[in-house]
């Protein structure tokens, strides 16, 4: 009532203590949640490892490390950076492929035009 009339707000003497208890409870809940999450993740990792062992699979990190080591071994004696593989059809084709493409295009042209390009 005092607050509505513009007076001082009534203060609860235990408000500070209650707020501290509430904050502590929140911290404790957060710690419990994190611990539960860590336990669940450890269980999942055990299951993942069992599957890897059963099927002879490797962890992603191990696979990447092996690929990196293989690249380093291949480039060990080279003075230049490793060449990247060029996918098929991206400019590193043989002349035979270009001729076959030209022949394919010529098939769709009318007879007189085919004769002009063949000469």
From TrEMBL:
The organism's place on the tree of life at top rank: Eukaryota
- Compartment(s) where it occurs, according to its Swiss-Prot or TrEMBL record: Cytoplasm, Cytosol; Nucleus; Perikaryon; Presynapse
PANTHER family registered for this protein in UniProt: COMPLEXIN (PTHR16705), COMPLEXIN-2 (PTHR16705:SF9)
Keyword Coiled coil assigned: yes
Please list where the region (Disordered) is annotated: 1-47, 73-97
Q: What is this protein called?
A: Complexin-2
Composition bias of kind Basic and acidic residues appears in 13-47
Look up and give the organism this protein is from: Cirrhinus molitorella
Give one Pfam family, short name only: Synaphin
So what family is this one in? Belongs to the complexin/synaphin family.
């Amino acid at each position: 009532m005092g607050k509505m009339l513009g007076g001082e707000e009534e203060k609860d003497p235990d408000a500070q203590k209650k707020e501290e208890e509430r904050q502590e409870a929140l911290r404790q809940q957060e710690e419990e949640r994190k611990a539960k999450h860590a336990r669940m993740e450890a269980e999942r990792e055990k299951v993942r490892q069992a599957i890897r062992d059963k099927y002879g699979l490797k962890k992603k990190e191990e696979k990447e490390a092996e690929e990196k080591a293989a690249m380093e071994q291949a480039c060990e004696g080279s003075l230049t950076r490793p060449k990247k593989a060029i996918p098929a059809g991206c400019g590193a084709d043989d002349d035979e492929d270009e001729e076959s493409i030209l022949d394919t295009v010529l098939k769709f042209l009318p007879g007189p035009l085919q004769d002009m390009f063949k000469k």
